[in-house]
Amino acid sequence: MKLYHAPGSCSQAVHIVLREAGLDAGLIEVDARKHVIVGGGDFYEVAPLGYVPLLVLDDGVVLREGPVIMQYLADLKPASGLAPANGTMARYRLQEWLNFLTSEIHKGFLPLLYAVAAGKYVDTARPKLLARFMWIDQQLEGQRYLMGESFTLADAYLFALTGWGKAAWMKSVYNADIDLNGLGNVRQWYERVRARPAVQEVLEREGFGG
Ligand SMILES: N[C@@H](CCC(=O)N[C@@H](CS)C(=O)NCC(=O)O)C(=O)O
């Protein structure tokens, strides 16, 4: 398998899942803003839409979309507990989280990441995004991870996205102008996830260690 990824982007979640599951994959780094493969090559030739993550299986099959790639990888290693079994209500709960994260948090960050182009829309987007993070903070009350006691794909995804915000307790990757400092449960969860050996390895490899 080969994973096309960009350090600090949403593909960091897939990178974490690979490590958590103990799966082996070649990592190919992409400059996601310039759409070029680091070391040479036009990324559009591999990915017509020009975005990471992209997984290429050993038989050449190409899998797109982070939440789907993560589920594919988790299902290769069911014992990892990264995703509950297909067909169970718990699996739908996981998919509920993944869909929420992709549409409300991941894409909710875009106006803040491209604030100049977004202009006044930032004033609408920021409180919406903060409200969603506050809701996540409530869901984390009294539990270690988003789905309860076990780390799942949802935690890997949210971890990569949270790193785009601003708070004294995180190592911000893109420094989008949203202040997450007031979120105590998110803070504890973030530090818990960051301390996981697999996450540490990924942060080191992507250049955010230390
Ligand atoms: N729907 C895609 C979106 C992926 C995405 O937004 N990737 C960003 C990095 S976080 C990217 O590569 N952007 C470059 C571009 O869109 O040109 C997914 O969920 O996998």
Mean pLDDT: 97
Number of helices: 9
- Give the helix proportion (percent range): 40-55%
Q: Main sheet: which strands, in order across?
A: 3-2-1-4-5
Question: What about the largest sheet?
Answer: 5 strands, mixed
Small-molecule binders here are: glutathione
Topology, number of strands: 5
CATH class of the largest domain: Mainly Alpha
Order of helices and strands: EHEEEEHHHHHHHH
Tell me the count of domains.
Answer: 2
Commentary on this structure:
47% of the residues lie in helices and 9% in strands. The chain has 210 residues and is α+β, with helices and mostly antiparallel strands. It folds into two domains: 2-79, Glutaredoxin; 84-196, Glutathione S-transferase Yfyf (Class Pi), Chain A, domain 2. It has a five-stranded mixed sheet, with helices on one face. Helix 1 runs parallel beside helix 2, helix 1 crosses helix 7 (153-162) and helix 1 packs across helix 9. The structure holds glutathione (GSH). Glutathione binds at residues 6, 9-10, 32, 50-53, 65-66, 102.
Quick overview of this protein structure:
With 210 residues, the chain is of the alpha+beta class. Helix content is 47%, strand content 9%. The longest helix is centred in the middle third of the chain and has 19 residues, at 121-139.
Which features does this protein show?
single chain, 210 residues, alpha+beta, Glutaredoxin, Glutathione S-transferase Yfyf (Class Pi), Chain A, domain 2, 5-stranded mixed beta sheet, binds glutathione
Blueprint of the fold:
Layout: E1 2-5, H1 11-21, E2 26-31, E3 36-37, E4 54-56, E5 62-64, H2 66-76, H3 89-106, H4 110-113, H5 115-118, H6 121-139, H7 153-162, H8 184-194, H9 197-206
Parallel strand pairs: 1-2
Antiparallel strand pairs: 1-4, 2-3, 4-5
The structure holds glutathione.
